[in-house]
Write a structure and sequence with these properties.
It is built from one helix and 13 strands; from the N terminus they run E-E-E-E-E-E-E-E-E-E-E-E-E-H. The protein is mainly beta.
Length: 207
C-alpha cells in the first residue's frame, strides 16, 4: 500500500474554535513531513476543518530511556448530549498490547543510540487521518538492529453509537514488516515508507 507523504499538522484549523488560524508552521517541513513537536499541535483529523489537536509531552527519567507521550483530541459533539462541541480524546483499539478498553496514549520507546518506537499521523485531503506506529524488537540491546514492524490504524466515526467506543477512535487494521532490520525506527519510516526520519525520538535518526 502506498502511503501519502506525512502532511500532519500543516492545517489552518483554529484549536480555540474562535476562527483564528493557529501559528501553523512553528514546525519545519522536512523530507515531506511536518515535524511533530513537544506541546500542542493543531491538526485536521477529519479533513474537513473540525478542530483537532495532538499534544506531545516529555516523560524524563534522568537516563537514556525517557520518552514522549502523545494524546490525540478532537472537538466535536459528544455522547453527553451537549449543545456545543467539547474536546474529546481519540483512543486506539486493537493491535499489539491493546485491550478491550483501548489505549489513550501512544508514545516513543527510546535508548541512548536508537529509537525503538515512534509514530506518524498521516493526513489525507478531505478524508480521515491514518495513524502508523513503528516498533522495533529489542534484539540483543537497544543499540542492536532488529526486526521492525509498522502497525496501521484507521480513524473511525462511531456513527451507530457502539457501546464502549467513543465518537471517534483509531481502529487497528494490519501490521507490515520492514524488509530489513533497523536500529532506529525513524530510519525505517524514511527508507521503507518514505515518511521522513524526523519523528519524536532522540535516537540516531534525529542526529
Amino acid at each position: 500500500m502506498r502511503v501519502l507523504p506525512f502532511l500532519v499538522f500543516a492545517t489552518a484549523v483554529s484549536c480555540t474554535g474562535r476562527g483564528r488560524a493557529p501559528d501553523i508552521v512553528r514546525t519545519t517541513l522536512v523530507d515531506g513531513a511536518v515535524l511533530l513537536h513537544n506541546g500542542a499541535n493543531p491538526v485536521d483529523l477529519l479533513g474537513d476543518g473540525t478542530p483537532s489537536e495532538v499534544f506531545v509531552a516529555w516523560r524524563g527519567n534522568f537516563n537514556a530511556h525517557g520518552h514522549s507521550s502523545v494524546a490525540i483530541y478532537i472537538r466535536t459533539q459528544s455522547d453527553l448530549g451537549d449543545s456545543v462541541p467539547v474536546w474529546q480524546i481519540v483512543p486506539r483499539f486493537g493491535g499489539p498490547g491493546s485491550d478491550e478498553s483501548g489505549q489513550e496514549l501512544v508514545g516513543t520507546t527510546e535508548g541512548a543510540d536508537c529509537t525503538l518506537g515512534d509514530l506518524r499521523l498521516v493526513q489525507h485531503p478531505k478524508a480521515y487521518a491514518e495513524l502508523i506506529v513503528a516498533r522495533r524488537e529489542l534484539g540483543n540491546s537497544y543499540a542492536d538492529s532488529a526486526d521492525t514492524h509498522f502497525d496501521y490504524y484507521h480513524l473511525i466515526k462511531n456513527a451507530d453509537g457502539v457501546i464502549g467506543r467513543p465518537p471517534y477512535y483509531f481502529e487497528f487494521v494490519r501490521t507490515s514488516d520492514a524488509r530489513r532490520q533497523y536500529c532506529d525506527v525513524n530510519v525505517a519510516f524514511d527508507q521503507e515508507l518514505h515518511l521522513g526520519r524526523h519523528g519524536l525520538g532522540h535516537g540516531e535518526a534525529s542526529q
